[in-house]
Amino acid sequence: MFSLKPPRPTFRSYLLPPPQAEDKFDSEPKIKKLEPVLLPGEIVVNEVSFVRKCIATDTSQYDLWGKLICSNFKISFVTDDPMPLQKFHYRNLLLGEHDVPLTCIEQIVAVNDHKRKQKVLGPNQKLKFNPTELIIYCKDFRIVRFRFDESGPESAKKVCLAIAHYSQPTDLQLLFAFEYVGKKYHSSAS
């Protein structure tokens, strides 16, 4: 009649469950180096430390401090702080919680609060001021804001220009997907 064996699950999740916390206590504090998780073939183009990611628009209470890294595939914000008000404990296999793929970027705006200037950055444009804030408008309707209050002005300018250059490339070979597929295709063809 009826089988007493429970049915085998057929759903396959592509999200990893959260890592289990260890019950062991170490007497030495761990110093964590802020490094991004990179895919094979992904190259770090530019990075800047002491960046603040703005979470809320009305208060800086939930802002996160960390390192902003631009690679040839994504913008990665690496922080040591946990995300406030986190509901889900699953992780994407390709992108981190604070990552934005470069192909998802619609518009990049560099802002200088002191001079009251802002500029929409394109692929081969120059930036005549040191930005204090970077606003990224994404194609999936996200708005991501970064503040460069404590970081060096020249490094902030360089990372803004690198993001603009790689998010809207004039040469398609700058895209990560073309470079990665090209290596796989040519190695399998030989």
TrEMBL record:
Q: Which BP terms in the Gene Ontology apply to this protein?
A: phosphatidylinositol dephosphorylation
Cytoplasm as a keyword of this entry, yes or no, is: no
Question: What domain of life does the UniProt record list for this protein's source?
Answer: Eukaryota
What keyword terms does UniProt attach to this protein? Phosphoprotein
Q: Which Gene3D superfamilies match?
A: Pleckstrin-homology domain (PH domain)/Phosphotyrosine-binding domain (PTB)
What is a single cellular component term in the Gene Ontology annotation? membrane
Q: Which SUPFAM superfamilies match?
A: PH domain-like
Q: Does the keyword Transferase apply?
A: no
**Family of this protein:** Belongs to the protein-tyrosine phosphatase family. Non-receptor class myotubularin subfamily.
Put simply, this protein is called: Myotubularin-related protein 10
Native organism: Pipistrellus kuhlii (Kuhl's pipistrelle)
